[in-house]
Amino acid sequence: xxxxxxxxxxxxxxxxxxxxxxxxxxxxxxxxxxxxxxxxxxxxxxxxxxxxxxxxxxxxxxxxxxxxxxxxxxxxxxxxxxxxxxxxxxxxxxxxxxxxxxxxxxxxxxxxxxxxxxxxxxxxxxxxxxxxxxxxxxxxxxxxxxxxxxxxxxxxxxxxxxxxxxxxxxxxxxxxxxxxxxxxxxxxxxxxxxxxxxxxxxxxxxxxxxxxxxxxxxxxxxxxxxxxxxxxxxxxxxxxxxxxxxxxxxxxxxxxxxxxxxxxxxxxxxxxxxxxxxxxxxxxxxxxxxxxxxxxxxxxxxxxxxxxxxxxxxxxxxxxxxxxxxxxxxxxxxxxxxxxxxxxxxxxxxxxxxxxxxxxxxxxxxxxxxxxxxxxxxxxxxxxxxxxxxxxxxxxxxxxxxxxxxxxxxxxxxxxxxxxxxxxxxxxxxxxxxxxxxxxxxxxxxxxxxxxxxxxxxxxxxxxxxxxxxxxxxxxxxxxxxxxxxxxxxxxxxxxxxxxxxxxxxxxxxxxxxxxxxxxxxxxxxxxxxxxxxxxxxxxxxxxxxxxxxxxxxxxxxxxxxxxxxxxxxxxxxxxxxxxxxxxxxxxxxxxxxxxxxxxxxxxxxxxxxxxxxxxxxxxxxxxxxxxxxxxxxxxxxxxxxxxxxxxxxxxxxxxxxxxxxxxxxxxxxxxxxxxxxxxxxxxxxxxxx
Length: 690
What we know:
This protein is of the alpha/beta class. It has 24 helices and 24 strands. InterPro entries: Glyco_trans_1, Glyco_trans_2-like, Glyco_trans_4-like_N, Nucleotide-diphossugar_trans.
């Protein structure tokens, strides 16, 4: 707890602390006197004998600065990373079972790291009956209703009067942002939500728990209109600080849509004045105050100290590369950068964007004209369109560096060239093993321009990097950083689980004792799912209880269903369609197959390994990078179905071998491909490039 001149409310709060029921293992109380001048220090000292209290001093005003001071003191005591740090205010009175409830919360949600509790109002004076329906009580007073269901919660709804965070994020280096939150003067709101949203970007999950309750004291002047409008203004300032630049087209550093929005609010306010509708008049004043706060921060606030990275590509569908780009954004946020995904529209983008928004990963529309990719007719006209129409949109992101993901040969080169035209440095990630390609003199000239600003290249596999360099080495600067950074897997989500195996088999009507091979991949030519059906036909002679699970959708689904029917295999081929939560399916398999004709990496292979499922893949670049000399799987010939059937049949016939292979694969996934390992490699790659 931080307290600045809190002597008026602290006695009630500390008396309530004296009545707290003690949780198993005890508890400690750290209070930072943040430059008080009202006798707060003497008051705290008077409770030293009644509470497990330690008082700290931070003379520079700023709630977040004071909380960081407390964190340094707390972290100096050795504790497990799942220990719970509870944050509260000097005017928030807890219920007697508060700490017991927080302990129960920590035990109920072992995989989560950020928690919000219920915050009820403690009114010094009853608010006017008309007020509460017209204002956001959460933003204004930091209240959270106990009626909110327990479980996952948007991290921006975790308020500082009653929140808890496990020790691990702070041990990893996260701290409160000192540029936001109360500091003794007019300030930008976001004391705790800046942190909780940033932690969400770094992969720490948030939950709500209604049992942990405090009553937040609301003073008489805080129900007055001037105070509430000032709060709206501060909220607007905080919103500017926390929003990603470039998500919307801007005019004078402000999203264009805000200008007509302000004009409409002003017009509606004028109508309410004329009609005498006090409620509507106040609502429009609140909205205008919020917008004015945003404008003020855009024009007068301190600009963010963090560098911004734009991640973009010539993307046509939601696949492994796009998922990797989203994970890269999380890594960058955890490393202290700002990151935004700029993508072309494709089927499923809206739903995916909404899911990412819950994690505070920003996706913005970025679809500049292209001239390298696709049809090169009228290529000079297309290049000028890219230059004149694409450059303003790219500059709107205010990026310090552009990350261009190459999914195939020149797919991404137009944006790379555009970044150089905008004098923006760039890095490239390579997500496939490209075949040999020749370039015309026209292309070669523009490629030299495009690659002039490239500071680094990483590929998801050694094969992908080698193929890329065979095409582009002559265009790269000798000083460009080169690296291989594999795709990651969340080993906390993808894990062996007998319960998940049983549930998945029940869901997909797969007999519990049957053998099951499966492929998690798009039903597209690159993945060659027709070969998996052919493999099933060959293996069922030896294993009559063998099933094939095809998890994914794509253009080949109808042809594959027809193939299964023609071979008499329809009852034994299970089409699941697209599965968003693949970790709920993987453990149901006895062997995972990837029959690709080419791969950049093969994310499904390491996901299977993380789930303790033996991984089998064709011996092609990308898959070979993972499974060569890997105890967690094996490679099969890419063009010899009989040899592949023999190798997989021998594996299916040996349960002990499959179990050993699955356990070894899990260890490899943790040591080589976990988010922690790959995240460190990504941070090291960017270090010094900006």
